């Protein structure tokens, strides 16, 4: 299955290191070339000789053991197709997240430009530490894939979350990555995210509850699939791709227009305010004796409708948030906007939508065909959205079936 593929396994100094011997065997059974790098502390739990016999390759430990005058951290990174870091200790995770390269393993990770899977294993209290979780989230933002630890009996004698996930899970995910192709390689995908802010005065503004999570999930997915990504966001975010920070609808319109002409696909996932204050006060508006106040509003530009009217080869995708009559409103909106796809979600539900990590959507295309995606994490929804946009739906036989508007 894995003939011609090189899997680089990084082992850090945790008790679960002994389990990786079997993981190496699993890859070797599928004819993979397995290279192994260990931190010096990993040698307290497994021997170099064992790892060499199982992998049938030299095992790298010290950073300055340089055979054939090659910088090892570069040659390891160039040779492998994927890197699996298991077990990943809190210490090693912290170093990688903060760019510290003080041993061979962390230096290789820093130089590695292909997929990296990280399988943490540690005491449950360490795993739940806020600093560790911040480091995990930081790694996710930069494109590292985290296979989270499981709940179980730990070596320290306690029970909780921190146990290395099953070897089958690590193996299967690695095989999946090696078998997959970068479906969006060579495409430029522009995505908007977050809710726009329309100033009334220096203190007050008009906005909405959009967190930007769906847009960011789409951007992360496109980036992982090889696309050149431009995220136009009202939310501060750090990513490994281009992020343009904007505030108002007019700023977002300008940013979208600047990226539109050479884009392959534009996804308007942001919640753009329909109206803005006609006159923005330079000073804070003072409370008066009046019980009522009137603020004159004017319409913001309809960015989705505008770019849909002038698209040539671009795919244009819109989002609509509805609190009632979801299907009917979405059907009318896609005809009005003229976009290629419209993704509708029900904001009246507390378990999906704004600020939630989950969503459930119905995807409409311009021909009246829709696809319902049942409740799932936004990262999962994002992957399926791209499968629909680029005609790669999987016939899985589940209840995410294509149907006409009426039958849905």
Labels describing this entry:
single chain; 408 residues; alpha/beta; Rossmann fold; 9-stranded mixed sheet; 6-stranded parallel sheet; 13 helices
Structure report:
- This protein is α/β, with parallel strands linked by helices and 408 residues long.
- The protein has two domains: 6-179, 3-Layer(aba) Sandwich (Rossmann fold), CATH 3.40.50.1950; 188-404, 3-Layer(aba) Sandwich (Rossmann fold).
- The chain is 31% helix and 25% strand.
- The protein has 13 helices and 21 strands.
- A hairpin with a 3-residue loop joins strand 19 and strand 20 (369-377).
The percent range for helix content is: 25-40%
Q: Strand share of the residues?
A: 15-25%
Number of helices: 13
* CATH-assigned homologous superfamily of the largest domain: CoaB-like
Question: Sheet with the most strands?
Answer: 9 strands, mixed
How many domains comprise the coordinates? 2
**What's the count of strands?**
21
The overall pLDDT average reads 88
CATH architecture of the largest domain: 3-Layer(aba) Sandwich
Q: How would you concisely characterize the structure shown here?
A:
With 408 residues, the protein is α/β, with parallel strands linked by helices.
Secondary structure layout plus pairing:
Elements: E1 6-11, H1 20-29, E2 33-38, H2 48-55, E3 59-60, H3 72-79, E4 82-88, H4 90-97, H5 104-111, E5 116-120, H6 124-128, H7 130-141, E6 145-146, E7 150-153, E8 159-163, H8 167-179, E9 188-193, E10 198-199, E11 205-206, H9 213-224, E12 228-233, E13 242-245, H10 249-260, E14 265-268, E15 275-277, E16 297-299, H11 303-310, E17 315-322, H12 326-337, E18 341-346, E19 358-365, E20 369-377, H13 378-389, E21 402-404
Parallel strand pairs: 1-2, 1-4, 2-3, 4-5, 5-6, 9-12, 9-14, 12-13, 14-17, 17-18
Antiparallel strand pairs: 7-8, 10-11, 15-16, 18-19, 19-20, 20-21
Helix pairs in contact: 1-2, 1-8, 3-5, 4-7, 9-13
